[in-house]
Design a protein that fits this description.
GO cellular component, one term: cytoplasm
Region (Disordered): 1-34
Organism: Linum tenue
Helix content: 25-40%
Shape: globular
Family: Belongs to the IAA-amido conjugating enzyme family.
Pfam families: GH3, GH3_C, GH3_M
Bound molecules: adenosine monophosphate
Radius of gyration: 25 Å
Strand order of the largest sheet: 11-12-13-18-17-16-14-15
Structural class: alpha+beta
Distance between the termini: 10 Å
Number of strands: 25
């Protein structure tokens, strides 16, 4: 990968977006409705799926009337499935169980013996986590093609950003799931167009990226869900559709070199700046990385715009060169170069999005969950344009959409689409699981899914709160991912991992100096550096007499990083989406002060536990005011694509 010139240690080269969420594939590209829920008489029992487009294409794409009609059908589909979610869910479960009745997991292990009703299913099937099916996943990964979890062949593994034993989780998937994901994408623009008309008249500037992929020992691809999606013909060969009309040619998205991909996508976005009506990326962190990239590289970009060429030392990928030169960068454009330069040269970058892309109506990025930490930065760069969170999805399953996309980020609620999977909800108090149609307003639940691809009563790990209803279907606020304490990008670090990493560092480096960590906490700092980085606050207890040299703390930083999971390390090494980890040594007594502060805010003395992660600004300020020394990881930790135990081919 090409090195980006670096100016300071924590603002590094930019790169891919995390695995995960989607672009906007509209229903207009949908050609064959997925075989969702057929009744036993083999008739569709609920809403009709959005159909394939009628041949009303004009040279510019579909007519406005055709688009409006298509949107109407899609919105009607949403009305229908949300009007009787319980019936749809019954059918979905029936379909999943009847198709898979003979698979080892259902038939032999849990003795379902062909039952497809909810009662028997709930009685016989346990609620599980990844660890419970890890042995099955390993068998499939090693090449066992017998029907273990699913009767359809496993087409690939989706590598989740959730981890197990430090490695990415592997989610089995089947070919037909691609249709289901496309269906969810197809709902987004019809929903959006109710609130922002005219989006079909321009383009979307989305920064979309692929990541490296590997093969399991049994030969199945293992890659993030979005990489799988962008490389699929669903995405690559999509027919013209004004709703999937992006400024980035496919070749720039599919470029495995993250620097060239980002550079070319920005260049294409700048060249088509007046046509851009919406901008976005999957996560807020990715979009901010793109702006940061522009901040560092606008001079290079302007030089190419001015000359109408691509610097051959910057863009070496032949497919990217050809696509950009034939599709976008047709001629020298000194006027545009002057304009971009004059804007980028200004002292403040406030409102840079609206300055460079003046017709932008909204920023399409996920800012729910841990991504909410990026809202102030996005507001700054976009001058307060609406931040739109369109969907909620995962490697296991795509879940739902936001039917009120212009709402405030804090009010975003996702409507789970009942055809996607069979959903259950584990109440906080851990009684019986409840069904989609039975959740209660204001209550919090952990999401449990049963999917077409062979996960049965699987705990996703997300906590959701019922915020309202669309017809009879609940809408959920995303509350948090269970146990995650630190996250900058798609990394998810939990308390146990952090604890282990701190212990490794102390054992390896501090003990020799008679040092130990008396108390610690952590903070995901996305404010002082782009990309953000993990900060650990350590209060030491030192028995030795030799002063601890700075290099020892730096070694501690690196050992902590080496001990964290592969998603974190990939973010540091390959994606450059996470900056070097920092340890801040705080004065003696700082954690007592922290406790005093918490108690002054109402915490109980008896129950007070040091939080292993802090978010509340006054607490962060308190910690920062007592820092005696600050040390950064001197280099990247080790990371290789694929899983530890695989020694096979890696692409990209
Ligand atoms: P992955 O398995 O890597 O695809 O990550 C999926 C996880 O990302 C979900 O289980 C959520 O924790 C998180 N996620 C996905 N979509 C959203 C969203 N719209 N808001 C907040 N978190 C999300």
């Amino acid at each position: 990968q090409t090195e980006i010139p670096q100016t300071n240690t924590h603002t590094k080269r930019l790169t891919h977006l995390p695995p995960l969420l989607p672009p906007l594939l509209s229903s207009l590209t949908q050609t064959s409705p997925p075989p969702f829920f057929q009744s036993s008489q083999n008739k569709p029992i609920t809403a009709a799926m959005p159909e394939a487009p009628k041949p009303t294409q004009t040279s510019n794409g579909l007519t406005t009337i055709a688009i409006a009609e298509k949107n109407k059908r899609t919105l009607q589909f949403i009305e229908d499935v949300t009007s009787n979610p319980d019936d749809v869910q019954t059918q979905v479960l029936h379909e999943i169980l009847s198709r898979n009745s003979a698979v080892e997991y259902l038939h032999h292990r849990h003795r379902l013996h062909g039952a497809t009703d909810r009662r028997t299913f709930k009685k016989l099937l346990p609620v599980i986590s990844y660890e419970d099916i890890h042995p099955d996943i390993t068998r499939i990964a090693n090449g066992d093609t017998s029907p273990i979890l699913c009767s359809s062949p496993i087409s690939e593994f989706l590598t989740s950003s959730g981890t197990s034993a430090g490695e990415r989780k592997l989610m089995p998937t089947i070919a037909e799931e691609m249709e289901r994901r496309s269906l969810l994408y197809s709902l987004l623009m019809p929903v959006m167009s109710q609130f922002v008309p005219g989006l079909e008249k321009g383009k979307g500037m989305y920064f979309l990226f692929i990541k490296s992929e590997s093969k399991t020992p049994g030969g199945l691809p293992a890659r993030p869900v979005l990489t799988s999606y962008y490389k699929s013909s669903h995405f690559k060969n999509r027919p013209f559709d004004p709703y999937t009309n992006y400024t980035s040619p496919n070749e720039t998205i599919l470029c495995p070199d993250s620097y060239q991909s980002m550079y070319s996508q920005l260049l294409c976005g700048l060249c088509q700046r007046t046509q851009v009506l919406r901008v976005g990326a999957v996560f807020a962190s990715g979009f901010i990385r793109a702006i940061r990239f522009l901040e560092k590289h606008w001079q290079l970009l302007c030089r190419d715009i001015r000359s109408g060429t691509l610097d051959p030392t910057v863009i070496t990928d032949p497919a990217v060169r050809e696509a950009v030169l034939t599709k976008v960068l047709h001629r020298p454009d000194p006027e545009l170069a002057d304009f971009v330069e004059s804007e980028c040269r200004k002292d403040s970058w406030q409102g840079i999005i609206t300055r460079l892309w003046p017709n932008t109506k909204y920023v399409d990025v996920i800012v729910t969950g841990t991504m909410s930490q990026y809202i102030p930065t996005l507001d700054f760069y976009s001058n307060g344009l609406p931040l739109v969170c369109t969907m909620y999805a995962s490697s296991e399953c795509y879940f739902g959409v936001n039917l009120n996309p212009l709402c405030k980020p804090s009010e975003v609620a996702y409507t789970l689409i009942p055809t996607m999977a069979y959903f259950e909800f584990l109440p906080k108090e851990r009684q019986e699981l409840v069904d989609l149609a039975d959740v209660k307003l204001g209550h919090e639940y952990e999401l449990v899914v049963t999917t077409y691809a062979g996960l049965y009563r699987y705990r996703v790990g997300d906590v959701l709160r019922v915020a309202g209803f669309k017809n009879r279907a609940p809408q959920f606020n995303f509350i948090c991912r269970k146990n995650v304490v630190l996250s900058i990008d798609s990394d998810k670090t939990d308390e146990v991992e952090l604890q282990g990493a701190v212990k490794n560092a102390v054992d390896a480096h501090l003990v020799a100096f008679g040092g130990s960590v008396a108390e610690y906490t952590s903070y995901a700092d996305t404010k002082t550096t782009i990309p953000g980085h993990y900060v650990l606050y350590w209060e030491l207890s030192v028995k030795g007499t030799t002063a601890i040299p700075p290099s020892v703390y730096e070694d501690c930083c690196l050992t902590v990083e080496e001990s964290l999971n592969s998603v974190y390390r990939q973010g540091r090494v390959s994606d450059k989406s996470i900056g070097p980890l920092e340890i801040k040594i705080v004065e003696q007594g700082t954690f007592d002060k922290l406790m005093d502060y918490a108690i002054s805010l109402g915490a109980s003395i008896n129950q007070y536990k040091t939080p292993r992660c802090v978010k509340f600004e006054p607490i962060v300020e308190l910690l920062n005011s007592r820092v005696e020394g600050s040390y950064f990881s001197p280099k990247c930790p080790k990371w290789v694509p694929g899983h530890k135990q695989w020694s096979n081919n890696v692409k990209n």
